[in-house]
Amino acid sequence: YFIVNYPTCDLKVICAGKPDLAMSDSSDLREEATAVVKQYIEHGRGAESSAKVYSDSGAKYDQYMEVLNYNAPRKTAEIVAELLKDNFGAKILDVGAGTGLAGAELVKLGYKNLDAVDAAEGLLSVAKQRQIYDKVVCQFVGNEKLLFDNDTYDLALSCGALQENHLPLEAFQDIIRVVKSGGYIVTVFREEAEKVPWYKEGVVAYMTGLEKEGLWKLHLRTTFPNCIADKDGLALVHGVL
């Protein structure tokens, strides 16, 4: 028996003595996942339409990310752990939390004081099932002021939330608002998304501008392999001033 476990939906594919069938199913799922991800980041789609595609695919999202070898959540959690060390009570905001993949990795490491915000209700419904977040808020970050008080969090993170049709760069000013002085903002995404049309001047150029304004300071910049589907990732850590 060949049993494939998908962590959030408890789906089991059992192929008695038929490994070729299991391989075929995996290949089909990868093709399906690739096609859906292309819709997420299709140029010209816009944030609201992209959020709807996310919501509609929420039930299978974790399966898609698994078959595409989505490594960004694990990398994000590793960076957060390096920053917070044994401060397991630190208050953390997961921006663009999706189904809670990054949050789940943080919980494994002992960090459990988490809140989540995302624009796709279909993804957040899965995140709620994990029961790892204290607050779960559905809103378009950047388009609307975050529903959190100033200086609430020790750290905010966004994992995979910078892409075409995704988090607007203007959102970072509001994220900075809700993070305490001396806290951190961790941003992890596919390196090639740094220059997509959605971000005009580029992600790094905009973030450098915020540093010149005295809002935060770059603490760490690193690249890593296999962010998703063999694409390299970029991780940026800023300290809030």
From TrEMBL:
Residues 93-186 form the Methyltransferase type domain. Transmembrane segments: none annotated. Gene3D superfamilies: Vaccinia Virus protein VP39. Signal peptide: none annotated. One of its GO terms (molecular function) is S-adenosylmethionine-dependent methyltransferase activity. It holds the Pfam family Methyltransf_11. PANTHER family: METHYLTRANSFERASE, RHODANESE DOMAIN-CONTAINING PROTEIN. This is Methyltransferase type 11 domain-containing protein. The lineage of its organism: Eukaryota, Metazoa, Spiralia, Lophotrochozoa, Mollusca.
